[in-house]
Write a structure and sequence with these properties.
Radius of gyration: 16 Å
Strand content: under 5%
Helix content: 25-40%
Number of helices: 2
Structural class: mainly alpha
Low-confidence stretches: 1-8
Order of helices and strands: HH
Largest sheet: none
Mean pLDDT: 82
Length: 64
């Protein structure tokens, strides 16, 4: 089976400062939600955690 040359190995992707550490403050519930734990009575937990991650990326790399 041949893999298309368009498929790129993640080790070949160039990300400026890709090894730089970024700190994001999450609650334990938010961390669990990102790790895959389900909170059926509070769907906003994972949304809140993802927003925090996106904000950290935007602040760090000035992504718009």
């Amino acid at each position: 089976m041949k893999i298309s040359s368009e498929v790129m190995d993640m080790n070949q992707v160039k990300i400026p400062n890709g090894d730089e550490k970024v700190t994001v403050e999450l609650t334990v519930k938010e961390l669990l939600a990102l790790a895959g734990h389900k909170f059926p009575l509070d769907k906003g937990i994972e949304i809140s955690a993802r927003k925090k991650l996106n904000e950290a990326l935007e602040d760090t790399y000035r992504i718009q």
